[in-house]
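ugh ok fine here u go
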Amino acid sequence: MFTARSICRLVSFQQIRQLNVTGGMASSKKNDLEVNHSLDRQEFFIELDPPDRGVLDYDLLSDGTVDMHHTGVPTSYRGRGIAGQLAKAAFSHFTSERTKMLLTCTYLQKYYKDHPDASPPDLITLPS
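structure:
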C-alpha cells in the first residue's frame, strides 16, 4: 500500500535519486522539467507553463497492482520527450517498489515494447 510517508524513487536519465516525500508528493528534475508523483491523486506529472501539465495517471487495484491507464501531454509540448520522462519515472518507481503494473495506456505499451529494460517482465501485464 502506498502512503504519503513512502520514500519514492524516480530515475533521471543519468542516475537514480532517492527523493523526499512531502504531503504525498515526490519530485525529480531533468533538464529543468520536474517529474512529480502525487500518491493522493495517483499520478505522475510535470508542471509546464500554467495551466499546462503532462500527466501519467494510474489506479491502485485491490490486488496491489497498478493500472497505468493514461498518459497525456498538451499538443503544443508533444515531441519533447515529456511523456517518456513520465513513463520512465513511473516504471522506475513501481519497479523499485516491486509493484505489478497493468499497462492499459497504449503509449505505455509502446514505451515498454521500445524499452523492455524499463521493468522486469514479471512485473508487467499487457491487456489481452
